[in-house]
């Protein structure tokens, strides 16, 4: 080989080598994210007026104060306590509910409250696909920028599914989770499902005392248990069905869709249903949209507790939730979901408390405590795995398992509460500062102690984490005051959950733990491109040479074969 | 962003941002401004003024409480609501559980409804008429050109003719002359809510530029409106989550019409399309084959190469490049050799 070719290849090698050797002397500097490049969301939902937080009387319904920064709409509470048939049109128009969403009539036992309750639910898709543009409708974020496709039972609404025509954000009644339903022992309850969705669904009333079938209705054609194989046929799109029961036992229960349950439940068609003890004049907050603090607790709860919270834990798989965002044709969605999606190979990615993940849990699912209170927590796990909820700074007592009272003498007081899928626990959270029940005032976390439960798609801090915040640790808008005084604003950015904001940047002035910039020289991608191109180039030349000098090649091949043959022959002979 | 597109559409028709439909006292004041449907209207101003609580700025003076049986109906009531008694289970009866086969009609004053200042009427079952307009002429019209009555049927069964949809109207397009007064009979044939919602109308006549009928079927609701003079195509849809996306979408063409609305089943193409691939489903023919499925030969070859040949696309490009360059290089080397042999 002529010397110049050798020199040329040496030069090329040295260029590659030089960049690698010199690299360690010139490591890239830390790239700081300029806060001005971030989209900070307001910590509280700007559409919710501060006046909603106050204790107030609407339609004769005395609604408790809620210190949350995004409290429930008090008009909505009044409308569902009285029944949408018993409130003024003005109040109704403040709620967005259909006038027949919650119908309350007939005080059958003469104890001062209505005993016939009709609750109308529709089936609504959130963050679904549209053939018109890249994006999702109607949009519902569980955390900044996080929009998993989901289905919910929603109270029957009126008008648009979005906030208004210019917005693609979902109307506030259309959200995760499916609403908490409250009825009384002895109420004649009809849950009317109007299937506004493009797939079949049913409702199964898990734990609620309900007859297997009600033969009087619809000629005994279907049952009342929601199971398509044994009780009733699937409720097809465009159809309506009534589920009817008169519960004899109270308790924190569970309702969910039983059609293709392995996917429909995880998609969000699951909610809490609570049967309250019968008391005179027991008007109930029939729906608690978004769960959280009950601003109009039942008579029985008020006898023993200062406050009540509904805490619904759920989990969703990203791959499942994306199916409705990938396809518009319902047939393709059905095929992907029923046939191709394999739940046994799935992992849960989104962990929610009352339909939201941290930091949005701080907006509406904090337990806001005062010292020496008895607080009732009703918890449901509708996710696919066991969860383990830990209350920092507190030990709480389990009063009920799956809606059934535990012997009060044998109550267990602990600080981690494990719940298998579908299980419910009622807790008594006592905020007496005695070193056992409470260690004192503070802004205490309460969270799933499976650590993935505090992530959102693997990014911490997220998941179903929330707080037990004492009023003395609450700022004027209803956010917890951190002991170190820095704010939580970085969590209220999309960029944080897109993994584009170094988690320690705000306290790492020198940038020791920030993200390094790009190394000068070839990056890995360019390197592989060059390697591939060069490799192909050499192969190309060889192929050409093989063809161009086929006679020589042929000759050398035949001679090689001959040599091998002769060697073999030699061996055989030898 | 189709919504933004319609903001633009709205802005071409509704010219003045200060005007609200509920400002019903001031209609005449707008006649001097013209809907020349162009140019430079400030969109953001719309958004600010009408953004939140679309319902809340109406005057709702009617009391919904107490189902007073003796509700007095106006004789000239145009509400157009048909109150069928076809929800026996919905209406509470008075005796024990599970007995609902008797007629509950007298428990509720069917036919009770509530009028609001801006042509918004809603009854106790959520039947809506919004943006009703019998006689207020759009400023671009000097008179009503003709009276038309159109019956629109909505339901799942109308989606059957369009593969890949779930809900639909019975028709996907209606054509009328400019300044037509249309009476819409909206017949919802499903047992759920549907809507007939039209957008982009002049805001000084129609609150938020909308004409909107809504009910829970099976039921009919009737409403009347007057279209402006301009050639325009208006979106008609059901805004319940995924109903428009899954087929319940149509357009009203006034005069020569404007730009077609996308994604109307059977009429206009989707902006974003799904891809369809053959799915291996059992066929009778497979049975004869003893259950063995044979793939076409090309598929087999491709599969084989995909599975067995580790060769990247870029390497392939390199190979082609090499094949082209190799003869040149050989030529160069040969020339050099010749030179070298000639030199001494």
Give an overview in words.
The complex is a heterodimer of chains A (574) and B (344). With 574 residues, chain A is of the alpha+beta class. In chain A, strands 16, 17, 18, 20, 22, 23, 24 and 26 form an eight-stranded mixed beta sheet that branches. Chain A has eleven helices and 29 strands. Chain A has helices at 3-23, 74-82, 89-93, 261-264, 299-304, 318-326, 330-340, 360-364, 494-497, 524-548, 550-573, and strands at 30-31, 56-58, 61-63, 102-105, 116-126, 128-129, 136-137, 150-155, 180-184, 188-194, 204-206, 240-245, 251-256, 270-276, 287-288, 292-293, 307-316, 350-353, 367-369, 374-381, 387-391, 396-401, 404-405, 412-414, 416-419, 424-430, 443-448, 466-470, 515-516. Chain A is elongated, with a radius of gyration of 32 Å. Among the domains of chain A are: 3-27 and 524-573, no CATH class; 95-303 and 317-342, Immunoglobulin-like, CATH 2.60.40.420. The mean pLDDT of chain A is 92. With 344 residues, chain B is an alpha+beta fold. In chain B, a hairpin with a 5-residue loop joins strand 1 and strand 2. In chain B, the strands form two sheets. Chain B has an eight-stranded mixed beta sheet with strand order 1-2-3-9-8-11-12-6, with no helix packed on it. Chain B has a four-stranded mixed beta sheet with strand order 5-4-7-10, with no helix packed on it. Chain B has five helices and twelve strands. In chain B, 19% of the residues lie in helices and 19% in strands. Chain B has two domains: 1-34 and 114-276, Immunoglobulin-like (Sandwich); 297-342. The longest helix of chain B has 30 residues, at 313-342. The chains are: A alpha+beta (574), B alpha+beta (344).
């Amino acid at each position: 080989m002529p010397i110049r070719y050798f020199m040329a290849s040496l030069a090329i090698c040295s260029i590659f080598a030089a960049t690698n050797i010199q690299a360690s002397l010139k490591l890239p500097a830390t790239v700081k994210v300029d806060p001005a490049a971030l989209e900070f969301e307001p910590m509280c939902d700007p559409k919710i007026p501060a006046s909603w937080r106050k204790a107030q009387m609407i339609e004769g319904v005395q609604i408790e104060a809620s210190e949350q920064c995004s409290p429930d709409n008090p008009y909505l509470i009044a409308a569902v306590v009285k029944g949408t048939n018993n409130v003024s049109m003005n109040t109704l128009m403040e709620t967005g509910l259909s006038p027949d969403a919650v119908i309350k009539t007939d005080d059958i036992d003469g104890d001062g409250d209505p005993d016939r309750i009709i609750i109308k639910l529709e089936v609504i898709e959130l963050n679904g696909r549209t053939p018109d543009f890249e994006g999702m409708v109607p949009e519902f974020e569980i955390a900044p920028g996080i929009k998993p496709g989901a289905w919910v039972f929603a109270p029957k609404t009126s008008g648009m599914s979005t906030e208004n025509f210019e917005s693609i954000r979902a109307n506030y009644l259309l959200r995760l989770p499916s609403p908490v339903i409250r009825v009384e022992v002895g109420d004649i309850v009809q849950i009317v499902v109007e299937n506004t969705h493009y797939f079949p669904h049913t409702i199964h009333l898990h734990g609620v005392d309900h007859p297997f079938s009600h033969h009087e209705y619809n000629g005994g054609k279907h049952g009342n248990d929601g199971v398509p194989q044994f009780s009733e046929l699937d409720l097809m799109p465009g159809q309506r069905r009534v589920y009817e029961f008169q519960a004899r036992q109270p308790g924190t229960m569970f309702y969910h869709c039983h059609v293709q349950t392995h996917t429909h439940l995880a998609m969000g068609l699951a909610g809490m249903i609570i049967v309250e003890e019968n008391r005179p004049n027991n008007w109930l907050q029939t729906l608690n949209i978004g769960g959280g603090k009950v601003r109009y607790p039942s008579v029985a709860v008020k006898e023993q507790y200062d406050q009540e919270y509904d805490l619904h834990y759920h989990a969703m798989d990203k791959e499942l939730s994306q199916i409705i965002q990938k396809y518009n044709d319902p047939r393709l969605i059905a095929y992907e979901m029923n046939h191709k999606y394999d739940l046994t190979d799935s992992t849960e990615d989104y962990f929610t408390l009352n339909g939201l993940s941290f930091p949005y849990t701080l907006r509406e699912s904090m337990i806001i405590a005062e010292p020496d209170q008895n607080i009732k927590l009703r918890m449901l796990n509708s996710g696919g795995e066991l969860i383990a909820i830990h209350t920092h700074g507190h030990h709480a007592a389990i009063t009920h398992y799956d809606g059934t009272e535990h012997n009060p003498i044998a109550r267990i007081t602990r600080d981690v509460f494990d719940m298998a899928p579908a299980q419910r626990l009622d807790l008594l959270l006592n905020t007496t500062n005695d070193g056992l029940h409470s260690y004192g005032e503070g802004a205490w976390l309460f969270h799933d102690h499976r650590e993935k439960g505090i992530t959102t798609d693997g990014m911490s801090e997220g998941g179903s984490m929330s707080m037990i915040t004492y009023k003395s640790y609450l700022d004027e808008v209803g956010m917890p005051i951190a002991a170190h005084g820095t704010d939580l604003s970085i969590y209220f950015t999309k960029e944080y959950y897109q993994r584009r904001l170094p988690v320690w940047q705000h306290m790492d002035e020198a940038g020791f733990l920030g993200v390094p910039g790009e190394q000068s020289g070839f990056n890995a991608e360019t390197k592989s491109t060059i390697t591939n191109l060069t490799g192909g180039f050499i192969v190309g030349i060889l192929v050409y040479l093989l063809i161009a000098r086929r006679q020589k090649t042929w000759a050398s091949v035949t001679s090689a074969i001959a040599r091998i043959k002769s060697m073999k022959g030699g061996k055989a002979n030898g | 962003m189709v919504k933004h597109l319609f903001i633009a559409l709205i802005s071409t028709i509704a010219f003045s941002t200060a005007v609200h439909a509920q400002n019903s006292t001031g209609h005449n004041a707008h006649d001097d401004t013209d809907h020349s449907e162009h140019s430079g209207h400030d969109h953001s101003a719309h958004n600010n003024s009408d953004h939140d609580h679309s319902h809340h700025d109406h005057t709702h003076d009617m009391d919904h409480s107490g189902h007073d049986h003796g509700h007095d109906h106006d004789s000239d009531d145009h509400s157009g609501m048909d109150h069928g008694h076809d929800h026996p289970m919905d209406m509470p009866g008075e005796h024990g559980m599970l007995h609902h086969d008797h007629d509950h009609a007298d428990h509720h004053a069917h036919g009770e409804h509530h009028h609001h200042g801006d042509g918004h009427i809603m009854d106790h079952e959520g039947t809506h008429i919004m943006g009703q307009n019998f006689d207020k002429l759009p400023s671009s019209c000097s008179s009503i050109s003709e009276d038309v009555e159109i019956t629109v049927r909505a339901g799942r069964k109308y989606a059957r003719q369009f593969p890949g949809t779930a809900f639909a109207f019975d028709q996907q397009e209606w054509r009328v002359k400019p300044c037509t007064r249309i009476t819409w009979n909206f017949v919802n044939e499903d047992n759920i809510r549907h809507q007939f919602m039209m957008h982009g109308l002049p805001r000084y006549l129609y609150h938020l530029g909308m004409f909107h009928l809504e009910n829970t079927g099976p039921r009919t609701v009737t409403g009347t409106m007057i279209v402006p003079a301009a050639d325009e195509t208006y979106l008609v849809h059901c805004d319940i989550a995924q109903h428009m996306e899954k087929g319940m979408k149509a357009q009203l063409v006034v005069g020569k019409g404007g730009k077609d609305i996308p994604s109307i089943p059977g009429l206009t193409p989707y902006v974003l399309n799904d891809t369809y691939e053959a799915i291996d489903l059992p066929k009778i023919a497979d049975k004869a084959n003893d259950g063995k499925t044979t793939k076409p030969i090309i598929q087999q070859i491709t599969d084989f190469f995909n599975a067995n040949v580790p060769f990247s696309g870029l390497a392939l490009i390199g190979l082609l490049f090499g094949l082209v360059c190799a003869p040149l290089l050989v030529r160069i080397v040969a020339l050099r050799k010749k030179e070298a042999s000639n030199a001494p």
